[in-house]
Write a structure and sequence with these properties.
single chain, alpha+beta, three-stranded antiparallel beta sheet, 22 strands
């Protein structure tokens, strides 16, 4: 690891951002943006108190105060907050604990979804909708992703491998959004509520705390924004195979015995117009259709097409883009006795696992 990277990952410099204290290893995640919300409902978890900073004013949400819910809407360039009898307007609202740090809260899009988060919250208008950004500790973010991306029957070592991959993505994958580091969808990494400390996901994250995957390139060792997929078709792909720009890590194509022997088969039917926009082994065209029709429309890039009247039948195998760690294959490797280091070495060849802040490799 280079000296500049050690500085970037170990210095605990505290920054002030929109009234919220942010540490160097915190990540800023845009949440619930898929719903294009015009209104949020905000409330503390039991035993927590929320301090809402609204311009020069502040509001306390706490069960014992009699006011434990706030409704936040957008009006032009302002956020409008209603809490009990108070109605306040400001360019943005930030939410912290009494100590101006992270806090547990529930954020809801009324009538659609409610989700628990732990962190500091920023709410501001953007293009007539509300943008919600949660600044959370890196390990909290990793646990929230592992809980969302994993299956209930995933073995511990497979969960650990996923945790290291997810953490590596958070460390190295910034820059895909303007107003925050990452979103909470599969565009970046799917993220839900932080899991309970006794859960398998949380324990896997704790067991691999601060571990990331690095790759040596041009005399520099850097963490990689590790990609992973639900199920490959027996061989993982490289970005160039799918028409994607090259990454800092080349993503070697590797054999996946489990998926070769147990392919995840699927069928889908598309209109002739939609099928005409789709090209096999092209991730960009698959993503465009997925965003419009849903991800089950074309689950992977490995398929054949056949016209059937006014429709086109797709038959394929795999789930996801097929790049990097295959979660189905990782599960099988773990069940066969492989540990997370062996799993990661298989799906990310020529990489080294290190602890953030240390140049010493763990394998």
């Amino acid at each position: 690891m280079t000296r500049s990277l050690r500085i970037r990952t170990t210095v605990l410099v505290t920054l002030m951002l929109s009234g919220v204290f942010v540490h160097a290893q915190d990540v800023r995640v845009g949440v619930l943006g898929l719903f294009r919300p015009h209104q949020f409902a905000l409330s503390p978890l039991a035993g927590s108190a929320l301090i809402l900073h609204v311009g020069a004013d502040s509001v306390v949400l706490e069960a014992s105060s009699g006011v434990n819910i706030a409704h936040i809407g957008v009006q032009g360039d302002n956020v409008v907050l209603t809490a009990g009898p108070r109605v306040l307007r400001a360019a943005e609202v930030t939410v912290t604990s009494r100590a101006n740090g992270p806090v547990d809260f529930t954020l809801a899009v009324p009538g659609k979804i409610a989700r628990h988060y732990r962190g500091a919250l920023e709410l501001k208008p953007a293009s007539r909708v509300l943008t919600a950004v949660v600044t959370m500790d890196l390990e909290t973010a990793v646990a929230s992703v592992v809980a969302a991306e994993s299956t209930v029957d995933a073995p511990s070592e497979a969960l650990k491998a996923l945790a290291v991959a997810a953490r590596s993505y958070f460390v190295a994958g910034k820059g895909r959004h303007r107003d925050f580091d990452f979103c909470d969808t599969t565009h970046c990494q799917f993220l839900r509520a932080p899991p309970a400390s006794a859960s398998a996901a949380a324990q896997a994250v704790s067991a691999t705390r601060s571990l990331v995957i690095t790759y040596q390139s041009a005399s520099q060792s850097q963490p990689i924004a590790a990609m992973y997929t639900r199920s490959c078709s027996g061989r993982t792909r490289t970005p160039s195979e799918l028409g994607l720009p090259p990454a800092a890590y080349p993503y070697y194509s590797v054999e996946c015995n489990y998926c070769r022997q147990h392919p995840a088969r699927w069928e889908s039917r598309l209109s002739a117009e939609d099928a005409a926009t789709l090209r096999s082994s092209n991730e960009s065209s698959r993503l465009r259709l997925g965003r419009r029709l849903g991800w089950s429309a074309v689950p992977s890039n490995d398929f054949v097409m056949r016209k059937e009247g006014k429709q086109t039948l797709l038959r394929g195998v795999g789930r996801g883009h097929g790049i990097g760690l295959c979660q189905a294959g990782a599960k099988a490797m773990a069940e066969a006795g492989a540990d997370f280091r062996e799993i990661l070495a298989h799906y990310y060849p020529n990489t080294v696992i290190i602890t953030l802040g240390s140049a010493a490799p763990l394998r």
